[in-house]
Amino acid sequence: MSTLTYLDASPRPDPLGDAQAQLSAAVGILGYDDGLAGMLAAPRRQLTVSIPLRRDDGSVEVLTGHRVQHNLSRGPAKGGLRFSPDVTLDEVRALAMWMTWKCALLDVPYGGAKGGVRIDPDRYSHGELERVTRRYTTEISPFIGPERDIPAPDVGTDEQTMAWVMDTYSHQSGHTVLGVATGKPLALGGSLGRATATSRGVVHVALAALLDVGIEPAEAAAAVEGFGKVGRYTARFLAEAGVRVLGVSDAHGAVAAAGGLDISALELHVDAHGTVAGFPGGEAIARTDVLELEVDLLVPAAVEGTINAQNANRIHAMVIVEGANGPTSEQADDILRSRGVVVVPDILANAGGVIVSYFEWVQANQAYWWSADDVESRLKERMLQAWNGVQQKARSHGVSLRTAATVMAVERVANAHLLRGLYP
Ligand code: NAD
């Protein structure tokens, strides 16, 4: 597991400000009144909990966690659980809002949620992380469940974390509830293809976007920021598709090779050392320089706000596919648009994870398992269908892919509100 680290010299990310600005732009185009706009903007529920943790040395430390359910109009809330020392309630609110739009855009029957615990997982033992996860799950348990809110892995959490969430919730329910979390291990009702789903989706859309701007993937060069659950498989699948991956980074460092990195060798290095830093098959570069390499495609797959007003003018890539949530600040988005850079927005680009989470939930609720081919072909179909829809909307309305995607998603959520009516 890895921590979320912001670059000291960069502007502080403001994910909630970015998310609210995107919603305002969409609401302006859709012409909604203040009442409906307010319902779309406000989180439905937000819960902050204290998590007393007994450390391995016997001392007690009290951590803080959040769970935000942004919108429930189209189904149960859905969203990841993040363990990071930088987590704030506002960050979780932004991420929950993006989940609402992502689920609506991909037409999976969920609202949006997100959870976070303010903790650096690298500094806690396996046993301590288990106790944190179980206590956090207990605190939020009245609000979660297969029909209420379904967590999944995000930054700093993994399938083991989801196994603990599922087990803790099941103990409280008195029976095993496989559908309470997704991204679980295969042996506990996980889905084939879930671990790689976000990256597969990123690469399906990245290849389509490259072709759309006239670049053959076999001729393309790429850079990937972040080498965790999303970045690692993205680099692997890009290399498998013939794209030369010239540079990658993680929280500890970055490497680059002008002729392309050997991603299989790099993965072995990461397995052995826990970081891309020190990989002998490339040259060490500054972490921020990965974003500015001379490539056609850039995939940010780390944290929010790494593409900002400071570096947006120095980015060479003509296609940016947002593996991370909120990697591009509002100002950077404007700069990139004015430069003609194609930015495939997070709510489309990284939706593969929630699509296969949905498949996992369906399988777990029915106790009937699909083949890897079934999962992957359905994932590809949904991703490309969404890509085509967003691209057509952007072209026909003369707006960016982000605005088109947000408008489509917000309209679906608003229609659900209007059809359901306002209770009481
Ligand atoms: P992860 O914890 O597995 O990996 C995060 C990676 O980013 C690590 O390699 C870490 O070292 C690196 N990193 C952190 N700060 C960095 C920085 N400043 N510069 C370069 N690298 C840095 O997390 P993940 O699940 O891969 O999530 C990455 C992003 O993708 C997040 O924005 C997350 O919300 C988003 N996302 C994840 C999923 C999923 O299925 N896991 C789905 C959709 C979106």
UniProtKB/TrEMBL annotation:
<dbReference type="InterPro" id="IPR006095">
    <property type="entry name" value="Glu/Leu/Phe/Val/Trp_DH"/>
</dbReference>
<dbReference type="Pfam" id="PF00208">
    <property type="entry name" value="ELFV_dehydrog"/>
</dbReference>
<dbReference type="InterPro" id="IPR006096">
    <property type="entry name" value="Glu/Leu/Phe/Val/Trp_DH_C"/>
</dbReference>
<protein>
    <recommendedName>
        <fullName>Glutamate dehydrogenase</fullName>
    </recommendedName>
</protein>
<dbReference type="InterPro" id="IPR033922">
    <property type="entry name" value="NAD_bind_Glu_DH"/>
</dbReference>
<dbReference type="InterPro" id="IPR036291">
    <property type="entry name" value="NAD(P)-bd_dom_sf"/>
</dbReference>
<dbReference type="InterPro" id="IPR006097">
    <property type="entry name" value="Glu/Leu/Phe/Val/Trp_DH_dimer"/>
</dbReference>
<dbReference type="InterPro" id="IPR014362">
    <property type="entry name" value="Glu_DH"/>
</dbReference>
<keyword id="KW-0560">Oxidoreductase</keyword>
<dbReference type="Pfam" id="PF02812">
    <property type="entry name" value="ELFV_dehydrog_N"/>
</dbReference>
<comment type="similarity">
    <text>Belongs to the Glu/Leu/Phe/Val dehydrogenases family.</text>
</comment>
<dbReference type="InterPro" id="IPR046346">
    <property type="entry name" value="Aminoacid_DH-like_N_sf"/>
</dbReference>
<dbReference type="InterPro" id="IPR033524">
    <property type="entry name" value="Glu/Leu/Phe/Val_DH_AS"/>
</dbReference>
<feature type="domain" description="Glutamate/phenylalanine/leucine/valine/L-tryptophan dehydrogenase C-terminal">
    <location>
        <begin position="191"/>
        <end position="421"/>
    </location>
</feature>
